[in-house]
Each structure stands twice: as C-alpha cells, then as structure tokens.
Amino acid sequence: MPPTVQLDQINDKIIHLLLKDAQLSLHQIAKECNISSVSVLNRINHLKKQGVITGATLFASLSTYDFEIIAFLGIETENMADVQEILQFLKEYTFLIEPSLSIGKYDLHALVYAKDFNNLNERVAMVRRLTGIRKVEVSVWSGLPASNYANLDLLPNKR
Amino acid sequence: MDKLDYLILSELHKDGLMSFVDIAKNLHSTPCKIRRRYEKMKHDGVIYGFITSIDLAKVGYEGKVFLLITLASNVKKAETVAYLMSLRNVIGVVETIGPSDLIAIAPITDLASIQDLITKTKKAPNVQKVEFYCISNVDFPMGRTFDEMLNKRCIDIASKL
User: Fold this and answer.
1) Which of A68, B1, B9, B95 has the most CB atoms within 10 Å of its CB?
2) Which of B13, B62, B92 sits opposite A58 (nearest CB)?
3) How many domains does chain A have?
4) Angle between helical axes of A9-20 and A26-33 (0-180°, round to 10)
5) Domain count, chain B
6) Cα nearest neighbour of B59 on chain A
7) pLDDT single digits (tens) B69-114
8) The domain that contains B124 carries what CATH number?
9) d(CA B7, CA A113)
C-alpha cells in the first residue's frame, strides 16, 4: 500500500520522540529537532490532521486493573465456516482486544486479559463455544514484552 | 486507589490527550485535584506513561505479522530476544507459554517484508522453528478496542468502590 503521507526527517524524528513519551514538552522536542516550539506544534497539529497521529495510549500496570494474565488467542475455523460472521461474534465479546481476521497459522486473532487462569479458561471457553470454531490456541505471556519503538521505520517505502 | 482514581484512568482511556481541565469537568471535580491524583498515580508506578498512537497505514503499512518462534530446549531466551529486538521493525517480543516460546510482532508492507523478517528470524540464535500469521490491523501501539476494554474495566472497578 503506498503511503498517503510522506514524512520528512523532522516529522519522523518528532513521532519517534512521541513514541517514547507522548507527554514530552514542545520545548524538549524543539530542542532535539533543532527547530522552534511553534514549528513543532504546527507539525504535530498537521500530523494529527493528516491522521498519522491518532491520539495517545495510556499504559498502566496490569495489577491496577486487577488483571494477572495476558494471552494471544490463535483461532482456527472449520473449512466451511463464515469467518466474517465469527469475527462479528468475537467483536461482541468486549473482553477481547483487536479481534481480527488473520492469514497464516490462524484464521482469527485476538488478545485477551484475564484476572487469573480460571477467568482465562472461561473466556477461552466462550470463544470455543462459537459455531464454526475448530481450535483455539492460547499463548500466555510469561512476562511483559520487550519493546523497541525506535525500531519502527516510518518511511518503509523509501528503502 | 479510590473511585476517583479509576474514573480518571477511565477518562484517559477514552482520550489519552484529554486535559486535566476536561477530565475535571467530566468528573465534576477540579483540575488541581485531578492533577494531584494523576501525579500520585504516576509516582506510585500505577501509570507508566503515554505513547503516541499512529495509523501505520498512513505511512505505508498493510498490517502486522506475528512470528511464533520455537527455540531449542534448555537455552536462555534472552539472547534470541535481544537479536530479534535489533531487527528493523520488530516492535515487540514477548515470551510465551503455549504453542511457541516467543512471539515477535512487526508491521508489514508486503509479502517481501514478511519473507525478509522470517528469513532473519530463522537466523536468530537458538531458533528451531518459525511460524507466522498476519492481521490487517494498522493501529499502533494498540487499537481502540484496547482502550475500550480497559475503560470498561475501570468503570466496573469504580462502580464497586
């Protein structure tokens, strides 16, 4: 898919700074990018208008929400099953995050948070009960993910 | 944490950029009080921070690939994780209990970008098998359903306090 927005180097840098901390001050960003704070503000507003920056995501500790477990669900469906229909059912389970169609090892994917293993079992069982599901594979996170957003290439088509 | 703390988190899951003034308005409180609560949650390690969310499609991505990686037995995962994290576009690696030992996530532009990642992943230390699946979701770091689920959770907890 061709990019609809071609970022220049400064916007690339601004976004990468914001990926580390969305609350960075305009002044700090300006200093890092060697431009004025007003210019940073204009650029960020423009990136929002273009739909590149869509907001900010709050991350808090898992225990705050009284959750202990995070797991990926990899779902295989029966050959004749209506995958779109199953997806609609999955979307109604508000405890599932990003239920999506998938290509490859699984036909559908979702992320689930649970209070404990019993709660995880209940949630997985609700998915398994849906018509057309053949198999649900559960990958429980054994720790928090290592993440490196500096790695994200915002100019993927330039190479 | 009390009811107000959870309601503040709930507001921030609706909109991570919401100002203290707006949060105060929505919760019939004062910006000062909201700020104090917010600072305390940050200080106590409840709130880790905020990450700017972006639409990966706008810069040319088609979706994300999940690489399910099986390692040789009795090896330390850390070395493989470090190698994977150094690969371009690998935005996260999580150790898992289940069908594979590690799952790495990366945005993808096309078939070639998936092939490239799989080839590089197979060269990582101790890797025995690499399977994959792709989704067309282009929200980074997480989609709206993440915030919606956590928002609902905060409201549920608040209602019991």
Assistant:
1) B9
2) B13
3) 2
4) 140
5) 2
6) A3
7) 999 988 889 999 999 999 999 999 999 999 999 999 999 999 999 9
8) 3.30.70.920
9) 20
- A92, exposed or middle or buried, with CB in 10 Å at 0-12, 13-18, 19+? exposed
Q: Are residues B155 and B97 part of one domain?
A: no
Query: In whole angstroms, what is the distance from residue B139 CA to residue B107 CA?
Result: 10
Would you call B58 and A109 a contact, using CB atoms and an 8 Å cutoff? no
B93 to chain A, any CB pair closer than 8 A? The answer is: yes
Query: Residue B40: which CATH number?
Result: 1.10.10
Among chain B residues, CA nearest to A157: B60
CA nearest to A105 within chain B: B133
The answer to the question of residue A89 being in a domain is yes
Is the same domain home to B110 and B151?
no
Q: Which of B58, B87, B109 has the most A C-beta neighbours within 10 Å, making it the best mutation to test the interface with A? A: B58
Select from B2, B9, B59, B101 the residue whose CB has the most chain A CBs within 10 Å, as the one to mutate to test that interface: B59
Domain limits for position B17: 3-52+143-160
A30, A69: one domain:
no
Chain A's closest residue to B12, CA to CA, is A58
In contact, B69 and B100? CB cutoff 8 Å: yes
Instruction: Tell me which residue range forms the domain holding A81.
Output: 62-141
pLDDT along chain A (159 residues), means of 10: 85 95 94 96 96 95 95 96 95 94 96 96 96 97 90 83
What ipTM was reported for this prediction? 0.93
A40 and A66, same domain (yes or no) = no
| CA pair distance A146, B69, nearest whole angstrom | 15
A4 touches chain B (CB under 8 A): yes
* pLDDT at site A144: 87
